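Chapter review. Work through the record for ATP-binding cassette domain-containing protein before attempting the end-of-chapter questions.
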Amino acid sequence: MIQLKHISKHYPVGFGKNEILKDIDLTIFEGEFVSIMGPSGSGKSTLLHVLGLLEEPSQGEYLFEGESVFRMNEKKRTQLHRGTIGFVFQAYHLIDELTVYENIETPLLYKNMPSAERKSRVADVLDRFNIVAKKDLFPSQLSGGQQQLVGIARAIVAEPRVILADEPTGNLHSDQAKEIMELFKHLNEKDKITIIQVTHSELNATYGHRIIQIRDGKIA
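Structure tokens for ATP-binding cassette domain-containing protein:
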């Protein structure tokens, strides 16, 4: 499904360069649940950002279902970024001024979805995550676990085929973290969503089918 070939990422520093990723080769199969682990500064979040088209590598090739992502036209890349890939962040990244309902609806507005279909999709997700009663609240009125549930609801409302999760339970206590990881497991097994998570937690990593270790910008 996803193939990275010789991906490198560096930033200029003075007269030299700071290498973040070094010659990464990686294949992710459809329906996999993959955990990426490594110490702070190892490049794992940068790798996730490259996979999610949030950052461009300095060199290398990224194939999505056999097609070069960097050779896609702008429209197709935008569709891939907004429609096929969902994001879940450690810091939730909810919009403070929007209600739970409006936060979840946001990706559908980007897709220019008709109002009736948007309402149906959001209602389904609110019901599925048992947060119907929270739909008119603002993020500041929710616990961390509830905010992350909303973040995941927003990630899946557009029915992505891939979810990229960056330390999804980093700000949660253990019970909340377990609930979130069980939810990811369910999305992977029942909805067949491919999941790639970056985590420091060895326990969270075991939810994946395989663990990829990154050290100093290289896959160990």
